[in-house]
Amino acid sequence: MKNTVVTFKEAKEKGEKLTMLTAYDYSTAKLIDAAGINSILVGDSVGNVILGYEDTISVTMEDMIHHCAAVARGNKDCLLVCDMPFMSYQSSVYDAVVNAGRLMKEGRAHAVKLEGGVEYEETIRAIVNASIPVCAHIGLTPQSINAFGGFKVQGRGEKAAQKLLDDARAVERAGAFAVVLECVPAKLAERVSKELSIPTIGIGAGAGCDGQVLVYQDMLGMFTDFKPKFVKHFANVGEQMTAAFKAYDQEVKAGTFPAEEHTYKIDDSIIEKLY
Ligand code: KIV
Q1: pTM above the 0.70 mark?
Q2: What is the number of domains present in the chain?
Q3: How much is the pLDDT for 190?
Q4: Does residue 260 carry a catalytic annotation?
Q5: Which of 10, 79, 19 is closest to 203 using CA atoms?
């Protein structure tokens, strides 16, 4: 079944949970799509898990378009959401609409995601008015890491909790079709999810959200630089990959790979005629 923003709306109304996973390439997109996941996010986490940056600040529009277009070619039924990278929407509302349009036209995204609440109400409204669905992202917003002073749980104190609720209300008012809640206490996320009419997609925000999102390298145990508390390894693919790489190395060096069945045939007479 094709997932659209209407699927998200209906899931919220029916109380059905939504699933979202990141992907950055064609092959992974095909696997996620075949698994029946509702949505693929081409996250700017591409900066961390694919490009090896320590944060998402250096990720460019060209990076996002390149990876989103690859994912789009492998995707059939997932709602394809693409992150707006740092400084592609912060400079002006005009820049935000133009860059959101590029992610749709060149990246073939179905929707864009941007980080921020109350401060980005006008920006979200303008993008939505251009018929581009927007998923908002509040709580821990990694593009603001230098302003936060590190990766920390958000919304813990009274003022911060109220700010998170106000941010959630603002993005809903602006027309966002969903909102990601990252690294916020579970009870606060539950309170926000109960109040909003749009689905909340949690990452480190507990089971009270309307859906969940994870970075696929995290949930497959492929990214070992650090493991946040909210990550569960649903498989240890990283260990399996290392074991496979070692087996390949050993077999090539021992002369057991490639074997007969991996080779192409030619008539001996042709080889014999060579001079
Ligand atoms: O970039 C990303 O992968 C994200 C998720 C963590 C929600 O924004």
Answers
A1: yes
A2: 2
A3: 98
A4: no
A5: 19
